[in-house]
Specification:
Blueprint (H helix, E strand, L loop, with lengths): L16 E2 L16 E2 L9 H6 L7 E3 L1 E6 L10 E7 L3 E9 L20 E7 L6 E7 L5 E7 L3 E3 L7 E7 L2 E9 L11 E11 L4 E5 L15 E5 L9 E16 L3 E18 L3 E7 L54 E9 L2 E10 L1 H4 L12 E12 L3 E12 L2 E14 L3 E15 L2 E15 L3 E10 L15 E10 L11 E12 L5 E14 L3 E14 L2 E14 L5 E14 L9 E14 L5 E14 L13 E15 L4 E14 L9 E15 L2 E12 L1 E3 L7 E3 L5 E12 L2 E2 L1
Parallel strand pairs: 2-15
Antiparallel strand pairs: 1-4, 3-5, 4-14, 5-6, 6-12, 7-8, 7-13, 8-9, 9-10, 11-12, 13-14, 13-15, 16-17, 16-41, 16-42, 17-18, 18-19, 19-20, 20-21, 21-22, 22-23, 23-24, 24-25, 25-26, 26-27, 27-28, 28-29, 29-30, 30-31, 31-32, 32-33, 33-34, 34-35, 35-36, 36-37, 37-38, 38-41, 39-40
């Protein structure tokens, strides 16, 4: 997995494996001999490592080197990894020395160990030097898995069935990972040669130490620097059919704008199925697929946003091999498929070829239309496919075809993309797209789009240049394209000094981001220049100061913009994580009151998050967003308008999570959203909303889960059916407008 420092450092996940006294020193440019993994007849147990019980032969790795903070320096704490396998599983045992009082770790929900100390194995099973599974585990055995793709990054949405155990000891911690072969995809062969990376993360030092040695000088090739291992036996995932039936019951009481208070009972069931074909291809099929989401996205500021605010995909059906549909231009954004009844997807790798195809219906377009409107009750049909061919080392060319049809409206998309790793580790990317749209409100439209990029990274320098050209007719209904009719050039450069040894400052340096956008009639739309300076010290602590100066054209009006920002992030103490940011400057009022044109205004934005860990089971999160827009007398569209605050927006979230065991947890979330507008200046409604969510979870492993939940939303409205008007605004959110209880159960079956 590529380390964005799920530590909080910008960069890329690393690994350095040197095999102590086993593998001879390899000269530069010579392919190392694979590390042979021994077969065992008795699976290792955690107690074996805790008590020093003699075990069968294992491949031992003890020499780890830093990727961060100091490229190539030895790991700061003694670390040993023991690898073995049997007919069903790969085993990795870890003995990590450390002072127990300094270990950052807790009993947390699965995949919520970003700031914990942990160990990991990354596995490239197809030897393509580009894609890899990663399996993280903290000292208490809590898991965090996913897939990483060089040139794209981490995809934590992938979930596999694997097993872990961990224990903090008097001189560190011990962990055992058991990874079933059925949980991975790899080609059938008399023996397996895989590329792997082992890593240990020590967060108080901002440290990511790895085997084999992976250098910043060859980034963004991360998987491309793994070391080979050999499993000298004909292993296979074997027959691999997975079924996840689920059932959902909910009782909802809500306030309908037209009908008043209503009640609704919902109960439905469905099935997600997965079949592995020839050990490498995965066929996912679903009926009434489990597209419900348990839990809530973290709050985002939605007020005065020029472009659509989007949230990440979390629904199970889309998670397998999602990176196959990732391209420079986001032509397929899975959350566009809202309410399907069926879906099928085929993804996987065949040699140097990667393939992906998905078809689904979507009932949402017909559900939003009123009865009697054309298309009410109808559904859209969506299909996408992509083929990718590897060539050279980590280079590829890909073809994407996609489309959607609803009634007489259709959209078709075709695209070719390229990634080429050039000498000197320069990375060249390119994509050409064409689209056609029929039957929407604007009639027929079509047009091309192009992207090209040139990037280079090393231990000190980052250079990126990206050019984007989108014609006015470009449209991808299933994608996310925020803006068309542009010619856009963006360049970014950063240099970091990294003092070696035990200096307090681990990295510091300047960065410069710049952008120009013109439309196809050569009219300037945007430009900005943003210099910044950052400093990183131990304890996952960093600070950055930046200044933004730019121009934006909106509604045929030009706006000069400027802002200054300061941000801070720190996990200096093991019991608290915190981030904070403050920005002051000018922004347009994008949505002025009726009769006014957009105008420039003073902006103040602040954000703060604090996470407390009173003990290893309890986690308390506080999130706060503050946004304020106020007039500038010199830019008011009319001298008769009041001078003062345009709007103030407060977003707060309090979250409590108590993890009884790795499988059982309780969570409570309280949200508050207050929007206080001046209606003579902005087209917004005074609103206050409070939400409460209570959730009990039993989650022994992905696919098998039981959720018991309660949710309630309160808004600042009064409703009286006999009054005129029936709805009136109040000062406080005192009316429950949506109350729900729900039970959801799913069970994982594998044959």
């Amino acid at each position: 997995m590529i380390p964005t420092f799920r530590f909080r450092l910008l960069g890329t996940r690393a690994a350095v494996l040197m095999i102590a006294a086993i593998v001879p020193v390899v000269c530069a440019g010579v392919e190392p001999a694979p590390l042979r993994i021994p077969r065992v007849s008795r699976p290792p147990k955690l107690s074996d490592f805790l008590n020093g019980v003699p075990r069968e032969a294992e491949a031992l790795v003890t020499i780890f080197r830093q990727f961060d903070p100091h490229d190539g320096e030895p790991v700061s704490q003694p670390t040993a990894a023991y690898l073995s396998y049997d007919s069903k599983n790969l085993y990795v045992g870890w003995i990590c020395k450390d002072e127990p009082a300094k270990i950052h770790a807790r009993i947390a929900p699965r995949k919520q160990i970003d700031y914990d100390d942990r160990v990991t194995i990354n596995i490239d099973t197809f030897l393509d030097h580009k894609h890899a599974y990663w399996f993280d585990v903290n000292p208490y055995g809590i898991q965090f898995d996913g897939r990483t793709t060089d040139g794209i990054g981490d995809d934590p949405s992938w979930e596999g069935l694997w097993f872990t155990d961990g224990r903090v000891t008097k001189d560190g911690y011990v962990v055992l990972e058991t990874i079933p072969f059925k949980s991975m995809r790899f080609p059938r062969a008399p023996r397996q040669i895989w590329n792997i990376c082992l890593a240990r993360i020590i967060n108080r030092n901002n440290e990511f130490s790895v085997w084999p040695f992976i250098s910043h000088a060859r980034m963004p090739q991360f998987v491309g620097q793994f070391a080979p291992i050999e499993i000298d036996e004909d292993i296979s995932p074997g027959r691999n059919i997975q079924l996840i039936p689920y059932g959902l019951y909910s009782r909802d009481s809500y306030l309908d704008p037209a009908l008043g208070f209503q009640q609704q009972t919902d109960h439905h069931a469905g099935l997600d199925a997965k079949v592995v074909i020839h050990d490498a291809l995965t066929l996912d099929a679903a009926f009434n697929p489990d597209f419900s989401e348990i839990g809530t996205d973290d709050p985002k500021v939605k007020v005065n946003q020029r472009y659509e605010v989007v949230y990440p995909e979390r629904r199970p059906f889309f998670l397998e091999n999602a990176s196959i549909f990732t391209m420079p231009e986001q032509l397929f954004f899975t959350r566009r498929i809202v309410d399907p009844q069926f879906g099928a997807k085929l993804t996987g790798s065949l040699g140097r070829w990667s393939v992906g195809g998905l078809v689904a219906d979507d009932r949402a377009p017909g559900e939003v239309l009123l009865q009697g409107q054309t298309g009410h009750g109808a559904r859209a049909f969506d299909a996408v496919s992509r083929v990718e061919r590897e060539f050279g080392h980590q280079s590829h060319v890909g073809l994407f075809l996609g489309g959607t049809k609803f009634e007489d409206t259709s959209n078709r998309v075709g695209s070719v993309d390229l990634r080429y790793v050039a000498p000197g580790n320069w990375n060249l990317g390119a994509q050409a797209t064409t689209t056609q749209t029929d039957g929407d409100a604007s009639g027929y439209k079509a047009g091309p789009g192009y992207i090209s990029s040139l990037k280079k990274y090393d231990n000190h320098k980052t250079i990126q240049n990206i050019y984007t050209d989108r014609s006015p007719g470009l449209n991808s209904t299933l994608g996310y394209i925020s803006r068309t009719d542009i010619r856009r050039w963006e360049t970014f450069a950063r240099y970091l000094w990294k003092p070696g040894g035990k200096h307090t400052v681990q990295a510091y340096g300047p960065a410069l981001d710049g952008l120009f956008i013109y439309d196809h009639e050569k009219r300037l739309q945007n430009w900005y220049v943003e210099p910044s300076f950052s400093v990183t010290v131990p304890g996952l602590t960093s600070m950055m100061v930046s200044h933004y100066q730019g121009y934006e054209r909106y509604s045929n009006i030009g706006f000069s913009e400027q802002s200054t920002s300061i941000s801070l992030a720190s996990s200096w103490y093991k019991w608290i994580d915190m981030t904070a940011m403050y920005t002051q400057g000018t922004n347009p009022n994008y949505y002025p009151a009726a009769g006014l044109t957009p105008f420039s205004a003073k902006s103040n934005d602040a954000m703060a998050t604090v996470t407390l860990y009173p003990n290893t089971h309890l986690r308390l999160d506080e999130i706060y967003y503050y946004t304020r827009l106020a007039t500038r007398p010199e830019s008011l569209p009319s001298p008769s308008l009041p001078n003062g605050v345009i709007f103030t927006n407060h977003l707060l979230r309090s979250k409590i999570n108590y993890q009884f065991t790795r499988d059982y947890s309780f969570r409570a979330i309280m949200d508050y959203n207050s929007l206080l507008p001046n209606n003579s200046l902005v087209a917004s409604t005074y609103s206050k909303q409070a939400d409460a969510t209570l959730l009990f979870t039993y989650l022994p492993h992905p696919g098998t889960a039981l959720y018991l939940g309660y949710a309630d939303t309160f808004e600042n409205v009064d409703y009286e059916a006999t009054a005129t008007p029936a709805y009136t605004l109040t000062k406080l959110p005192g009316t429950s407008t949506d109350r729900q209880i729900f039970v959801k159960f799913s069970y994982f079956l594998r044959f």
